[in-house]
Amino acid sequence: GSWAKKYGRCELASILARNGIPRNQIPDWICTATAESSLNSKAINKNKNGSTDYGIFQINNGYWCSPGRHNDCKVSCSALRSDNIGPSIQCAKKIYRRHGFNAWYGWKNKCKGKNLSSYVKGCRY
């Protein structure tokens, strides 16, 4: 169905850990996803330049998914909006390897340089 899947912080922490995100980065990833999509896997937003951001990490079709000019993640944009966030995580890891968290405005505006421990408070992962 098209019901949005909204992830809990701790649920997302576990999924990120299982997908190979280093433990020390998990608070940053959860903060980023919170800032970008409010942890909603179905989020979609149009940008002023005509490009579109998809999914829990708001991945842009200008570079990363198809249809788009480059499709560097070799993934369809619609797969980045599915309840299975595995493809979003794999693509986000690639973006991170290339640009770090600075690729995400949400991280720069809401997470950078802040104490993010509250994002994983009480979570086991």
Automatic annotation (TrEMBL):
CDD domains: LYZ_C_invert
Alphabetical GO biological process terms: defense response to bacterium; killing of cells of another organism
Record's catalysed reaction(s): Hydrolysis of (1->4)-beta-linkages between N-acetylmuramic acid and N-acetyl-D-glucosamine residues in a peptidoglycan and between N-acetyl-D-glucosamine residues in chitodextrins
Key words of the record: Antimicrobial, Bacteriolytic enzyme, Disulfide bond, Glycosidase, Hydrolase
Species of origin: Amblyomma aureolatum
Residue ranges crossing the lipid bilayer per the database entry: none
PANTHER family in the cross-refs: LYSOZYME C
EC number: 3.2.1.17
Hydrolase recorded as keyword: yes
Xref: InterPro entries: Glyco_hydro_22, Glyco_hydro_22_CS, Glyco_hydro_22_lys, Lysozyme-like_dom_sf
UniProt key word Plastid: no
SMART domains, per the entry: LYZ1 (SM00263)
Occurrences of domain Glycosyl hydrolases family 22 (GH22) (ranges): 73-91
Single GO molecular function: lysozyme activity
Descriptive protein name: lysozyme
Gene3D superfamilies documented for this protein: 1.10.530.10
Family statement drawn from the similarity comment of this UniProt entry: Belongs to the glycosyl hydrolase 22 family.
